[in-house]
Amino acid sequence: MSSFATTQLDIEKIRKQFPVLHQDVNGKQLIYFDNAATSQTPDVVINALSDYYSLDNANIHRGIHALAERSTAAYEESRKKVASFINADEPEEVIFTKGTTESINLVATAYGRKFLEAGDEVLISGMEHHSNIVPWQILCEQTGAKLKVTPVEDNGDLNMEAFRGLLSERTRIVSIVFISNTLGTINPIKEIATAAHNAGAKILVDAAQAAPHTKIDVRDLNCDFLAFSAHKMYGPTGTGVLYGKRALLEKMDPYQGGGEMIKEVSFEKTTYGEIPHKFEAGTPNIGDVIAFGTAIEFVEGIGHDMLKQHEDDLLAHANSTLRDIDGFTPIGTSNQKASVISFNIDGIHPFDLGMLLDARGIAVRTGHHCTQPLMDRFKIEGTARASFAVYNTISEIDDFVTALKDIVSKYRK
C-alpha cells in the first residue's frame, strides 16, 4: 500500500456517479488515465442534458412561451455559475464558446486584428498547446506582428528571466498556459500578469487544464482574458468559456455575425448587441451549457481543496512507484506540478506502450499531445501521458505500475 496519506473523500461514492467507469475493456476493468484530454461525466451532468432535451428544448432569448423562458433562465443561470466559479466581476464578462480553442481564436481575431499592427509583438511560451500557438501565428501573418516564445527549462519550468527579457514596449499580448497539458507545470500566472501589465500588454490565460484542478480567481490573477473548456472538468464536450474584462470586450468587434448578436439590422447598417450577446451569434449549444452549470456544481460540491489534495496524493504515489520501472524517464519534473505524468520508457515507442496498456484496460494518451514544439525542445517524438482525476485511486496507479513492469519485462525478452 501507499505510504502517502489520502484525503477524506469517499472516492467509491464518487466513482459510482460515473457510469462509464464501470465497464470492462479488453476483458479488464477500465482504468481511465486520459483525463487531461477529456474527463468523464457524472450522472448529474448526463441527467441535466437529458432533462433539457426531454422537458425544455427551445431556443433562448427569443420566445415568450414557457419552454423558451425556462431554457433562457437555465442558460443564463449557467453564466452566473461560471462567473461565480472564476470570481468575475459580473456574468456579462462570460462568453460561451465551443471550447478553449474557439475562445483563444475569438481574442486573436476580435482583439488582435483590431489593435495589433506591424512591428507589435505577441509573447507565448514553449510549452503551449497548438491552440495557443496557431491563432497567434495567423494573427501575426495578417498584421505583420511578431511572435516571440519564452523558453522552457529542462525540468519543465518556464524560464522567467527569459520571459521578462522578452517583454518590450512593443509587446501587445501575452498568452500563456496556466497548467501545461503535457508537463503538468503550474505557471506563476499572477506574476506573469503583473509583468505583462507593467510592459503595457494584455494577458490571456489558457486555463483548460487549470479549471478542473485549482481554484481560479480572475480578479486576483488580474488577467484580461481567460479561456477554458467544460469537457475537461466533468462537463459535456463542445462547450467552453471566454472570460474578458468588460472594458476590453466592449472595444472588440464581433467575432461572428448573425442572429442574437445584433441590436438593429437594416440593409444600410447593423448595430451590435451588448456583451455577452455580441459574441454569441446564432443558436448556442444550449443543452450543454446548461449541463456545464451542473458540472460546476459537481466540482464545487467536492471542493477545490479536497479535489486538489486527492490529486496531489495520486501524483505523489505515482511518482514514487513509477521511478522503479527500468528505463522510465519522466518529461516534466517541476516542483509546481498538477496531476499529469508524461513519460517514456527506453526502447519502447510510446504508441506501442499505449496499445499494450489498452490491451490491459488502461487508457492513457500517447503522441505529442498537441505540443509538437515542446517535443522538439526535448528532442523526442512524443510521450505516454497518464493524467488523474478525482475518481482515480491509489490502487489503479498500483495496477498501472504493475502493468508497465510486466510490459517492460516481456517487451525486452
Structure characterization notes:
The structure is a single chain. The chain has 413 residues and is an alpha/beta fold. The protein folds into two domains: 11-32 and 303-411, Aspartate Aminotransferase, domain 1 (Alpha-Beta Complex); 46-301, Type I PLP-dependent aspartate aminotransferase-like (Major domain) (Aspartate Aminotransferase, domain 2). Helix content is 39%, strand content 17%. It has helices at residues 11-15, 43-56, 66-86, 100-115, 134-143, 160-166, 189-198, 218-221, 246-251, 286-302, 304-322, 350-358, 372-378, 394-411; strands at residues 24-25, 28-29, 31-32, 94-97, 121-125, 146-150, 171-177, 202-206, 225-229, 240-244, 262-265, 270-272, 328-331, 340-345, 362-363, 365-367, 383-387. A seven-stranded mixed sheet has the order 4-10-9-8-7-5-6, with helices on both faces. A four-stranded antiparallel sheet has the order 13-14-17-16, covered by helices on one side. Helix 8 links the parallel strand 8 (202-206) and strand 9 (225-229). Helix 3 (66-86) crosses helix 10 (286-302) and helix 4 (100-115) packs parallel to helix 5 (134-143). The longest helix is centred in the N-terminal third of the chain and has 21 residues, at 66-86. Residues 1-6 have low confidence and may be disordered.
Concise account of the structure shown:
By secondary structure, this protein is an alpha/beta fold.
